[in-house]
Amino acid sequence: MSDLLERLRTRGWRVTAQRRVVAEVLDGDHVHLTADEVHAQAVLRLPEISRATVYNTLGELVALGEVVEVSTDGRAKRYDPNAHRPHQHLVCSGCGIIRDVHPAGDALAGLTGLPADERFGFTVDEVRIVYRGLCPSCR
Amino acid sequence: MSDLLERLRTRGWRVTAQRRVVAEVLDGDHVHLTADEVHAQAVLRLPEISRATVYNTLGELVALGEVVEVSTDGRAKRYDPNAHRPHQHLVCSGCGIIRDVHPAGDALAGLTGLPADERFGFTVDEVRIVYRGLCPSCR
DNA sequence: TTCGCTGCAAACTGTTTGCATATTC
DNA sequence: GAATATGCAAACAGTTTGCAGCGAA
C-alpha cells in the first residue's frame, strides 16, 4: 500500500477501489498527468471507473494538500503528486508535458521576496519558477 | 493612434473598428484582462462587437507577439499587452487578478539557466517567475 | 473589386454537479 | 445501518470554428 493511501486513511478518508487506483496511478508518476490521462490509466486497472470520480478524487487530493494542480496556458490541468518535495517545473511549449526539476538551492537565493514597493498591497506567500522550452520529441 | 495599431498596420494588418477597439482596450491596461473583460470593455465603445471577434483578435495579437497570454490555474486566460517590456507577474490566489511587477535585476541573477543534468533533453528558452498571494480586496 | 474580417450560432474541450444506486466503515 | 462514494448524464465555462455577408484597401 502506498504511503499516500496510508496517510489518507488515517485522515478519515474512505478507501474505495476507485480511490486506490487513482492514488496508485499518481504514485508512480514522474511526468505529471492530466485528469483524462489519469482516467485512462485508471481504466486499465478498473474498467468501470468514471471520469467524474477521477475528477472528484483529484479535487479532494488537491484540497487535502497531497497533490498540486499545475495549469499551463489554457491546456488541461496536470496533477503533481510530489506536493511534499519542493521542486520546480520544466514545461514543454509544444506538447505541454511537465517534468519536475530541482535546481540548486543557491540558484534560487534572493528570490524569496518581492520588494515592498512592488507588492501593491498584496501578501506574497509563494514564488513559482517555471522553465519553458521544447522536449526532445517536440524539437 | 496607439503605437500598437501603428505597428500592426505596417505589418499588413487590416484595421477595422473592432480591432481598433480591442487594441485600445488593451493599450490602457495595467491589470490584465480576460477575453470576456476585454469584450465587455469593447462593447462600451462599439456595442455590436462580438465575442468571437474579440477572441479572434486576441489570438492574432498573441500570434504576432504583441500580446502575451497568461493563464493561471484553470481560470480564464488573461492578456498582457506589455509583451515588449520584460517583467514578472503577481497573481492573486483569491480572484485571479494579475499585476505586472519589475523586481530588481539582481534578484533574478543566476536564474537564467537550468543545469544540463536537470534539462532532460529539453531546450530551455524561458524562465517565468510568478509571485502568488492575496490582493488587498481578497485579504 | 477583391480578399480578408465580422457576426452568428453551433461545436468543442475540460470540468462540475444532481441524483439515484452501491459501498465502506 | 448510516454515511459516504459512485456512475451517469446533463450542465457548465471558456474557447474555437464554419459559413454567409460586409467592408477596408
TrEMBL record, chains A, B:
It comes from the Bacteria. Coiled coil: none annotated. InterPro entries: FUR, Fur_C, WH-like_DNA-bd_sf, WH_DNA-bd_sf. Keywords: DNA-binding, Repressor, Transcription, Transcription regulation, Zinc. Pfam families: FUR. CDD domains: Fur_like. The keyword Kinase does not apply. Belongs to the Fur family. This is Transcriptional repressor. It comes from Streptomyces zhihengii.
